[in-house]
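Entry 14. Ran structure prediction on the chain below.
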Amino acid sequence: MVILILILLGTQDKPFNRLLEAVDKAINDGYIKEEVIAQIGFTKYKSKNIKTFELIPKEEYENIIGRADLIITHAGVGSILTGLNKNKKVIAAARLKEYGEHTNNHQLQILNELYKKGYILRLDDFNDLPKVLEEAKTFKPNKYKSNNKKFVKMVEDYIDNL
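Output, structure tokens:
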């Protein structure tokens, strides 16, 4: 049973109200009954249902992540990997350029790759949040495997060939 849901919006200097609005709606409609805490960065959003922080101090952040049963996040690498490295279930949604949430749509690529590998659940249509929350109850994410060695090798090969 999920006790705490943590929302991470990263440090992008653009708002991501769509995700918070979807979570608020899911709470109001009774799909989420758990405590919800959100690190919202530059997003300006007020909610009676969600305890929001612009930035959570590091020590408290670590404590909250440890207590969280589920992380709902933008599709930023740092936020997703934070959850995966702490063995948390992660639902991710891409910030999109057309909504003024990012400068481009690169988060779709991140979302696609990590979803294909079975690490995360994806939220594309925000109206589907209740369905994805239900899926999260039985979701068993694949164990995250870092690709750092391959990346370092690619950089070394590139430098060697200069």
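The longest strand covers residues 4-8. Will compare against last week's run tomorrow.
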